[in-house]
Write a structure and sequence with these properties.
heterodimer, A: alpha+beta, Tumour Suppressor Smad4, globular, B: mainly alpha
């Protein structure tokens, strides 16, 4: 039996103190407890763990934990805290029995203060946590990166959208993510022993060489030598690797616990603040847009998009999806409201950080794939790279998008395209990636493609967002698997009203509710009842969005918009 | 923006345009074959005598040479921008200059126009025994006509949204130039084409807006001016001009023509007309560019 079985036993002993366990308890625990374990380790089913747990005592488990590496032990213990606390948060109550059991385990493993420290940290009581650590545990220290924390010089870090803590325990570092917006950690083999600035530069050139790890809220991540954290705001990108962390926790800085103060002390350690004009956030506030001053095509659009998000704009034909996308590149006018990039009104100064791919293929038919890309690069960047370097760059982009084999193929020959629709879409994406833009806007990237090609394109776009880029697409009819890739969905009705914007799963949930109510209230025929039954069986097909939008008979959307506004105000 | 200087952008745009043209190999071959073919055809038709001095149809050859220039320029340019508009719109977002794109079109189309001009004139020289100096001058005027036609073609290409509309506009630009370019005497035409003008000794106002008229006037007067040393040719061409002048060919008053020594008049006129053509080129370039900017920005 591997580590996970012992972890499971540990969790079970704590969780069971509160009575009956549900499937969701087990799933939640399983998700958190396998954090930081490789796929090879996670091979045993929960049934087997269960059998194992019955045959082993808690004392044996604790003894096992005593004997493993301290870094692993801390990861398990803190994960245990997260699972228990998360469950309690979800239930909106604190289960004292579980907490007592947890504290007992910490006591037996000679870390009696751990619960209190973690509790204080998660509740943003950093000063108290620091005092407690000073009193009890010289082997633990922490630095806090908190969007809301204020230092003595009263600097807020709100714009970073992060709240995480770096714990230094003995000589290793753990990242405790309280609540950060899509925090990502990257690992890199670093065979050439690159310094941090070199790694940063490499990240810009060869981002796909870095493995991306998403760090969930309320989880812990062990930071090894090959990993680094990347956090951004609208002004800068901060990279933290082990070297930086060692400096952060150096003895002379032992009183520090806020990132603002750390930054004040040694600006050089954040020397990788390279992308000063990086697009980090896009926000629309009651945006009305169209082509003439008198007629708005899209109305009252509201969204808030962050880097690393794949956003789908959905709605029926003629609802203004394309107009919204064109507003970004000034091909449609803003009539009312505002469209903000990193808090500033959108302007041409951001254009070089944006890539816009219209619905039709925008390729030069009379050139081959390589020449299309070569001249696209040269026109934007001039002579900053040699031909050999550009060749390499082009090959890499094509390779990443799986179309390297068409590198020297003509786009068009003898009156027909020689590369497929999917390949052309990918090539269009590759052109934008050459520019290393932060925001890619694609108008109907899947139109005219087979379902397989469409799914692959969406997967590629999702992969791009892992490089902290924002991708906004409009799409008419995504499949379920495509829909799952979206982080956010902006929904329009047939009149161009932005009726709802939220995380994709939330949108689906609310539309399900809408459907149920709609069917129940307005269409009480047999067919609708069958639909209703199907809703109850938890069908989660995004076509639902279209089905509901297509119902032109009901004046439902106005009512829905009204109710939505009303609820928000409330 | 990406801070790629405009000079570098023009250079890469031009290279890209050349590569595109090279890719259309068949089209390129056809256009290079057509020029000498048309030259041979018109030289064959307008060769009343193998001796240029005795060739009464030489001005007609010159006129159709210029019409061919209009044709080459328009055909080469009128579809160019329509198909590229979306590409330019996309590249503009990344800071790629619209001006750079537009001027590179000029460079490339003019280069191919120059080759066609040379081919045309070389064939004409061979068949009509035209002296080298006149061939050089004729080539210059024809080239200017090609460029002004490219300018018009790109203007139309910026203005229209479809190839169909653009191709329908080609005859609208070519036919009036044939009719009012000066070869057909204005006295044979309906007087209403003079509109407000009462002096029928002058070219009618509508003819004065035709660039081909200035080119034809320039090529004829230039031919006289450059053959001053060769009295036979000079007289022959002068007679033709006199013939044309009697029919109100010249845009300048008959009196000023008579009061001046012929050659000094011609000396002035060919040069003056070249300036007019150049102003046409500049004017249509600017206008086309403005239209193109509007089209790109307004989607």
């Amino acid at each position: 039996m591997n580590n996970l079985a012992y972890i499971y036993k540990l969790w079970l002993s704590v969780a069971k103190t509160s009575g009956k366990l549900t499937t969701s308890d087990v799933l939640l625990a399983a998700k958190r407890l396998v954090e930081g374990h490789s796929d090879d380790e996670i091979t045993v089913s929960i049934d087997e763990f269960d059998k194992f747990a019955k045959n082993i005592s808690l004392d044996e488990t604790l003894e096992y934990l005593h004997n493993i590496e301290s870094s692993k032990r801390y990861v398990i213990l803190i994960n245990l805290f997260m699972v228990i606390m998360l469950k309690n948060i979800n239930n909106e109550r604190v289960n004292q029995k579980q907490i007592t059991a947890l504290k007992e385990i910490y006591k037996k493993l000679s870390v009696p203060y751990l619960y209190d420290i973690l509790y204080l940290l998660m509740n943003k009581k950093y000063t108290k946590a620091h005092k407690l650590l000073d009193e009890h545990s010289p082997n633990i220290n922490f630095v806090c990166f908190d969007q809301n924390a204020k230092s003595e010089i009263n600097q807020s870090f709100e714009q970073y959208q992060v709240r995480f803590i770096i714990l230094k325990i003995d000589d290793f570092f753990l990242l405790l993510n309280s609540h950060s917006h899509d925090l990502k950690i990257y690992s890199y083999s670093n065979k050439n022993k690159l310094t941090l600035p070199e790694k940063c530069a490499e990240f810009k050139i060869e981002p796909y060489d870095f493995i991306t790890h998403n760090v969930r809220d309320h989880s812990i991540y062990y930071l090894d030598k090959n990993t680094f954290i990347r956090i951004t705001n609208e002004k800068e990108v901060i990279y933290l690797d082990e070297d930086v962390l060692v400096k952060l926790f150096s003895p002379m800085n032992d009183k520090l616990f806020l990132v603002s103060e750390v930054k004040e002390l040694d600006k050089n350690i954040f020397q990788c603040s390279i992308a000063k004009d990086h697009i980090y956030n896009i926000k629309a506030n009651h945006l009305f847009a169209g082509y003439s001053k008198r007629h708005a095509i899209v109305k009252d659009v509201n969204f808030n998009i962050f880097e690393g998000e794949l956003v789908a704009v959905m709605g029926p034909s003629g609802s203004g999806k394309t107009t919204l996308l064109r507003t970004f590149v000034k091909q449609a006018k803003i009539l009312k409201g505002e469209l903000l990039i990193d808090g500033e009104k959108i302007s041409e100064k951001y254009f070089h950080r944006m890539g816009y791919v219209p619905q039709d293929d925008v390729l030069i038919k009379d050139l081959n794939v390589f020449d299309n890309m070569y001249y696209y690069y040269r026109l934007h960047f001039g002579k900053d790279k040699s031909d050999a370097e550009i060749d390499k760059l082009i090959s890499r982009q094509l390779q990443n998008l799986g179309i390297l084999e068409i590198k020297y193929k003509p786009v068009y020959k003898n009156g027909k395209f020689t590369i497929s629709g999917g390949q052309r879409k990918r090539l269009n994406i590759a052109l934008e990636l050459l520019k290393d833009v932060d925001l890619i806007i694609m108008d109907e990237p899947t139109s005219g493609l087979s379902s397989l090609d469409s799914e692959n394109i969406i997967k590629e776009l999702k992969k791009i967002t892992l490089l902290n880029k924002i991708v906004i697409i409009n799409i008419h009819q995504p499949s379920t698997s495509m829909y799952r890739q979206f982080d956010k969905v902006v929904v329009f009705n047939e009149y161009g009203n932005n009726i709802y914007t939220n995380k994709s799963i939330e949108v689906l949930k609310i539309f399900k509710l809408v459907k149920t109510e709609d069917a129940y209230l307005f269409n009480e025929d047999e067919e609708s009842k069958e639909d209703l039954e199907c809703m109850k069986c938890d069908k989660s097909d995004p076509e639902l969005l279209l089905e509901i939008q297509a119902d032109e008979k009901s004046n439902f959307w106005n009512l829905f918009s009204y109710l939505n506004d009303f609820t928000e105000k409330k | 923006m990406f801070n790629n200087p405009i000079s570098a952008q023009i250079s890469y745009q031009t290279r890209r345009q050349f590569k595109i043209k090279r890719y259309e190999r068949l089209n390129l071959i056809v256009s290079f074959v057509i020029a000498p073919l048309l030259a041979w055809l018109s030289a064959f038709i307008f060769r009343s005598d193998t001796d240029l001095v005795q060739n009464q149809a030489y001005p007609n050859f010159l006129f159709f040479m210029l019409i061919s220039g209009v044709f080459f320029g328009l055909i080469g340019s009128v579809f160019e921008i329509i198909n590229d508009r979306r590409t330019v719109q996309r590249e503009r977002i990344g800071g790629v200059s619209i001006f750079g794109y537009y001027i590179s079109k000029y460079y490339v189309l003019s280069f191919f126009g120059l080759i066609q001009t040379i081919l045309y004139n070389v064939i004409g020289m061979i068949f009509l025994n035209i002296p080298v100096l006149l061939v050089a001058f004729n080539s210059l005027i024809m080239f200017l006509v090609v460029v002004v036609s490219i300018s018009f073609g790109l203007f139309i290409s910026s203005l229209t949204r479809s190839n169909m509309i653009a191709s329908n506009l080609i005859p609208v630009l070519i036919i009036p130039q044939i009719l009012l370019g000066g070869l057909i005497p204005y006295s044979h035409m309906d007087k209403s084409i003079y509109m407000w003008e009462t002096n029928y000794d002058k070219a009618p106002p509508i003819a004065r807006i035709m660039p081909i008229k200035y080119a034809y006037e320039s090529i004829i007067t230039g031919n006289i001016a450059f053959t001053r040393g060769n009295n036979e040719i000079n007289d022959q061409i002068s007679q033709m001009v006199d013939y044309l002048q009697d029919n109100q060919f010249m845009s300048i008053d008959k009196e000023s023509f008579i009061s001046n020594f012929k050659c000094s008049f011609c000396n002035k006129t060919w040069f003056y007309n070249i300036l007019v053509i150049i102003s046409y080129i500049v004017g249509t370039f600017v206008l086309g560019l403005i239209i193109f900017y509007r089209r790109i920005f307004n989607g």
